[in-house]
Structures are given as C-alpha cells and as structure tokens.
Amino acid sequence: MSLQIPLAAVASQRLSVVLANQNCQIALYQKTDAMYLDLAIDGDPILTTKICRNRIRLLLGAEYRGFIGDLVFMDVIGDQQPEYTELNTRYLLLYLTNAEL
Predict the structure, then answer these.
(1) Beta strands in the chain (DSSP E)
(2) Model pLDDT, residue 44
(3) 25-29: long-range contacts (C-beta < 8 A, 24 or more apart)?
(4) Alpha carbons 75 and 67: distance in angstroms, whole number
(5) Confidence (pLDDT) at 62
(6) How confident is the model over 51-97, as pLDDT tens digits?
(7) How far is CA 85 from its chain centroid?
(8) Alpha-carbon distance 26 to 47, whole Å?
(9) SS3 14
(10) Do 74 and 88 meet the contact criterion of CB atoms below 8 Å apart?
C-alpha cells in the first residue's frame, strides 16, 4: 500500500522521511515552468532536478542508484500537473513500495 508523504502548500520545501528503512531527504521546488524534486539518501544524491508530472513515477529507471521503491504525484481531482498551491490536498506525493511497481 502506498504511503502519502505530507507536504506543505509552499513554493519551496525540504523534508526528511524514512522510506523502506532509507533516510531520505526531499527538496521540492516550484519554478516558472513546473515543479521539481531532488532526492538524497543519507545525504547522497539519488535524483536531482527531476520534473514532477501527474501519475509519472519519478524514479523510473533509477534502480541502479540504490533507491528502494519509487515516488509519484497524484492529482486526486483531475489530470493536471502538480502545482505547489494545492500540495497535500489536490496533489499528493506518494511512496510506492517495490511490490507496487
């Protein structure tokens, strides 16, 4: 079962969360054209400047980087790209386990 990662409705944020025993640091930031995500485990970059799209796995093809699972944004109302003003209400960031991939 996917896990929702709580976010604030702000244009730029950093948070730490443990996912599958991985100490993850997530940076999420809105630019003019889209929202972007950086992901690190114990401070080691796994993914940087990844554009966030609705229902598109963020780490697709990045298994070799050592991350267990994946992250995905879900628009729970429609089919729009994530935008910071409705994070955690309309746009949810979900962690998917390997079993869900």
Answers:
(1) 3-5, 12-19, 22-30, 35-41, 44-51, 70-75, 91-96
(2) 94
(3) 28/52, 28/84, 28/87, 28/93
(4) 24
(5) 64
(6) 999 999 999 866 667 889 999 999 999 999 999 999 999 999 999 99
(7) 16
(8) 10
(9) strand
(10) no
